[in-house]
Specification:
The two termini are 36 Å apart. This protein has helices at 5-11, 56-66, 140-146, 149-158, 174-179, 190-200, 208-212, 231-244, 248-271; strands at residues 2-4, 18-22, 40-43, 68-70, 80-82, 107-110, 112-113, 120-121, 127-128, 132-135, 170-171. Helix 4 crosses helix 9. By secondary structure, it is α+β, with helices and mostly antiparallel strands.
Length: 272
């Protein structure tokens, strides 16, 4: 279902059946999803074969039904089958090549996180891979909350630890997100938030340590360091902190806590 531009051009697949897709969050350097950074198109076709008569999309589907495919997962791993439509994950669909209808996800959350923490703003409506979650709300204020250090802390506290008890990427399931609290829009200083949002989402996402201004490699423990968050990071966080009524010391503790949890996780991975 994923094609590079060159592959799509080779087949001559009609544009109506190709959509821009975020295949990997590594493609996105900033909170704002830039279509120019996305390397793949996804084949989206919900029409029947008779409706596709005479199209290159139909030729591509028919090629897929006759291609030799090696099973990559499960009990049949390594075996060859004829046609992608013979794979277990696809063969029971009414129309095997249809991925269905999808609404536009304005905010996009990750299933896995390492040192970068983010919620993408997908204003151009790119499709998303199944390792990402779509949030079907067009409120920029929600995206501000989901990019706050407070929400990053919730993710570290409530999500699933790495497989096998080792360190590494945090794995976040849908039910984890459903359990996380968010500040209500009505409690935010919207004027400041809107002005900040435009600039914040365009710059490069830094590691959580750079964002919060904490160096975990110093001899001084994280808990004793004075956080020096990036100016726009501090401004965004203050919108949420103000809504929660946090004191100056409590705000610093949020930065220290999220950095400590991330550092413990990735340090454990390096030592295993």
């Amino acid at each position: 279902f994923y094609l590079t531009d060159a592959r799509a051009k080779e087949w001559g697949i009609e544009k109506e059946f190709l959509k821009t897709v975020i295949k990997s969050p590594r493609e996105c350097k900033s909170i704002l999803v830039n279509p120019k950074d996305l390397k793949y198109k996804i084949f989206i076709c919900n029409k029947s074969k008779p409706e596709l008569k005479g199209t290159n999309a139909l030729k591509y589907i028919e090629w897929g039904e006759n291609a030799s495919v090696t099973i990559k997962r499960g009990s049949g791993k390594g075996e060859a089958v004829s046609g992608f439509n013979s794979l277990e994950t696809i063969k029971n669909r009414k129309t095997w090549y249809s991925l269905g209808e999808w609404r536009k996800a304005f905010s996009v959350l990750p299933m896995f996180e390492r040192e970068r923490k983010y919620c993408f703003w997908n204003q151009n409506g790119a499709m998303i891979d199944n390792a990402l979650y779509g949030v079907y709300c067009d409120k920029k204020e929600l995206n501000i909350v989901l990019n706050s250090s407070m929400f990053h802390l919730f993710k570290e506290l409530m999500a699933r630890p790495p497989e096998g008890g080792g360190g590494g990427p945090l794995q976040i399931k849908v039910y984890h997100y459903n359990e996380m609290l968010v500040v209500h829009f009505n409690n935010l200083n919207l004027k400041i938030g809107q002005e900040l949002f435009t600039a914040f989402i365009k710059r490069e996402i830094k590691s959580i340590f750079e964002e919060c201004g904490i160096d975990p490699k110093l001899k001084i423990p994280i808990e004793e360091q004075e956080p020096k968050p990036l100016p726009d990071r501090a401004e965004l966080d203050n919108i949420v902190f103000d809504a929660l009524g946090l004191t100056a010391d409590e705000r610093k503790d949020v930065y220290r806590a999220v950095c400590r949890l991330v550092w413990n996780r990735i340090s454990k991975a390096k030592s295993v």
